[in-house]
């Protein structure tokens, strides 16, 4: 297996090994240990910014925003969205693919049902991505523009991540997203890889909430992966604010 392809395969294996940490928020709290919440009034804007490093240290950033409302529902409350937008910052060689991502509809955590303490107990995410034919056409167009091998590798990596994100979107949403327990958590794990290779994955989780309402202020997840001299960085930041 070629060097870059082997590293990419190992990165995926490493991601699987630490998935329970990366997807989780802070340690679970029993419902009786969390304060009871009421449905906030008014309209809010939820934003999610995801950044990932590509080869040569270049960055790919996707920022999505959803307008949303809270409403009482049974013993808890629900959150629904009524508008969304997306912005992608990518290298010039990936602009065609970035445009495809900006047009992709992603419902994020909406609609979501929360219990009385604000924990997400049920949610639905129905992201829709580009068809396989559209992806193939984008790759052909990229090659026709005499893109370098590195650019084409970036494009392939970008598309693979978009396809994977559609299936993993819901599992990556912290269950206490809207009413997080403020604090920090860090974890570093060594990973043994096929062929005798090794690496480390460092994950940092940080969250803050508004003191009176308990609503999300900021949730941040930082991941650094080191494998055979290859270092990748990724970050995810959520914000919720009233407008």
Characterise the protein shown here.
The protein is an alpha+beta fold. 26% of the residues lie in helices and 39% in strands. It has helices at 3-23, 95-103, 132-144, 149-168; strands spanning 43-53, 59-73, 76-89, 112-114, 120-123, 183-192, 198-209, 216-227, 230-242. Strand 4 and strand 5 form a beta hairpin. The model is unreliable at 4-25, 126-131 and 162-171 (pLDDT under 50).
Note the topology.
Layout: H1 3-23, E1 43-53, E2 59-73, E3 76-89, H2 95-103, E4 112-114, E5 120-123, H3 132-144, H4 149-168, E6 183-192, E7 198-209, E8 216-227, E9 230-242
Antiparallel strand pairs: 1-2, 1-9, 2-3, 3-4, 4-5, 6-7, 7-8, 8-9
Helix pairs in contact: 3-4
Largest sheet: 9 strands, antiparallel
Radius of gyration (CA) equals 19 Å
> Number of helical runs?
4
H/E series: HEEEHEEHHEEEE
Task: Give the strand order of the largest sheet, numbering strands 1, 2, ... along the chain.
Answer: 5-4-3-2-1-9-8-7-6
SS strand fraction = 35-45%
Low-confidence stretches: 4-25, 126-131, 162-171
Question: Structural class of the secondary structure composition?
Answer: alpha+beta
Question: Average pLDDT value?
Answer: 75
Helix content: 25-40%
Q: What is the total tally of β strands?
A: 9
The N- and C-terminal alpha carbons lie at a distance of 52 Å
- Shape annotation: globular
